[in-house]
Amino acid sequence: MLVSVYVPFVVTVVLAALGPRLARRLPPRPAARALACAALVTASGWAGALALLAFTGVAQVPQVAAEGQWSVAALRAEDPVYRIVAAVSALMLVVGVVSLVVAAVRQVRHLVRARRECAHLPGDTDLVVVDDDAPLAFTLPGTPGRIVVSRGMLRCLGDGEREALLAHERAHLRGRHHLFQSVWRLSAALNPLLRPLAVAGGFVLERWADEEAAESVGDRKIVAHAVGRAALASAGAPRPMAMAVTGGAVPQRVRALLAPPPARRNLPFVAGGMLLAVCCASLANAASDSDHMVDSAHWAQCAVHAGTAGAPSQHQDTPDSCCVGHERQERREHRP
Questions:
Q1: Are residues 202 and 181 in contact, defined by beta-carbon separation less than 8 angstroms?
Q2: Cα(150)–Cα(130) distance, integer angstroms
Q3: Strand duo 137-140 + 146-150: pairing
Q4: How many CB atoms lie within 10 A of CB 120?
Q5: End-to-end alpha-carbon separation of the chain, Å?
Q6: Closest Cα partner for 1 from 321, 313, 283, 311?
């Protein structure tokens, strides 16, 4: 546990530092899925490692040890984690869980509000054109979702660019991109180090929609012009909370659309998968070491009871039976 419990922290730092850079250069659809998987695994590994470190401190509280029937002295001898480390880990875990709950409540409220607005929009098609001079274009998740475009935005675009804009927004709905955003926001709430992944994820989702729009329209330049015109038209206007064609880093998106589609590269995905596997394996090993540590503390407590017992009585067989149970368990574990 001394080394393995810290591996998830190292993996999180590596992915948070390198993940966003790689994601911007990879095909957006697999990059978005890889970022979502990385966020889920590293956030879980982060919380699990903090919980194991915090447990080493909580388990040494005399009242907790008495309830769990293990030896505090043996636990301190087995445990190489300093108390300050355990205390800081416990505090970080509590703060992360509270932040996660708050972010989850906000996300649920946002989705409920979007679905209500979606249900109250006129018409029964996926496209709703609102009579507003402000240039707006965004999607509202629902069952089904809706695309909201203002007349002001439509007047800013040509016919081909309008088609590209609608194809972009339909790609957001079809790919259920709001779920990806929820994963990144909740993961970043639990682990602040994952915020770069969340920012990169938003850009990758826009690139995903751009590429699907380019495939649908058949002309990457038209999509690039649509993205640029929409961004210029909506400059200074309030940005909606929903997915919008003007989201992300627009100049980088335009440059990517004016270039050939990104080539598929397997090495970054393989390397990332190996890092996530190492994170899971190290956390499992740390959990196993923690269980063995508590079991040894149980054995030490039983041995103390057995050694300090007085004259034979009707209660003396209780610690003996406890020791025998642990002895049988250890024999089963070491049996070839």
A1: yes
A2: 5
A3: antiparallel
A4: 7
A5: 24
A6: 283
Confidence of residue 78 (pLDDT cuts 50, 70, 90): low
Q: What whole-number distance in Å separates Cα of residue 294 and Cα of residue 38?
A: 31
Q: Considering the entire predicted model, what is its pTM?
A: 0.81
| pLDDT level of residue 246 (50, 70, 90 thresholds) | low
Locate 212 and state its tokens. 């699907």
Q: How far is residue 282 CA from its own chain's centroid?
A: 18
Looking at residue 281, its pLDDT comes to 92
Mean pLDDT score, 62-89: 73
Distance CA 225, CA 235 (A): 15
- In the block, residue with structure tokens 């850079």: 21
The rounded distance, in Å, linking the Cα atoms of 324 and 227 is 73
Residues 298-307 have pLDDT tens digits of 677 777 666 6
Instruction: Give pairs for 267-271: CB < 8 Å, separation 24+.
Output: 268/22, 268/26, 269/26, 269/30, 269/34
User: Hey, what are 273's tokens?
Assistant: 């998968």
Q: CB–CB of 207/243 below 8 Å?
A: no
